[in-house]
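Annotated sample (chain length 224).
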Amino acid sequence: MSFIDIIKRSFLEGYASVRIDVAHIVMCMAVTVLIAAYIFLVYRMVNKNAFYNRNFNLSLIALSVITAAVILTIQSNIVISLGMVGALSIVRFRTAIKDPMDLVFLFWSISAGIICGAGFAVVAVVASIVITVIILLFDRVPAGTTPVILLVNASDYKTEGQIMEIVEKYCGMFQVKARNLTKDKLNMAVEVRTGDGGRLVEELMDVESVTSASLVDHDGEVTF
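Output written by the structure step:
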């Protein structure tokens, strides 16, 4: 018997097929769906995006179930698992994830499917509870005053000094992000932290040359 024959007998023949009964598959899928539904509810509760994406949330359930099915298949036949790894390696996802929390829920959903498919449903349940507690607990930690963008338009560019005096009066932190000057106009964008935005805008509008002043929320990078 050659060395290759020994490898085939000890490896491929020994692990080529592991029977998984229907009851085990149904139980695995049921637990996976329950945990995925729990992830669905948690995402809907903590989601803070301007527009709630129901399709993304539904995809979390599908990802868990699909991943669990893949893990079950890999366990049943090592030859199929090698082919599946090769097939999945060519898959490319082009959808950009803008919110880091969405990426967390994606990884959570996939991990739950992997753990349930491997037969460790208790680990998936405990991990899901711990993740939920962490998200809800730290979500309540105050983050301080959220920066906003102050947009000011004036008919006289020489009033910038007066405008900045008012901004300094009401804002603990401010930083000029954009300044556009023409012969008869001034347009400014200032990142500010203020607890009295109403009074800030009112006093700016009292300046004779100021034609408009507004505060706009933004979701860009925050400067502390």
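Annotation: DSSP finds eight helices and four strands in the chain.
Annotation: Strands lie at 148-154, 171-181, 186-194, 210-217.
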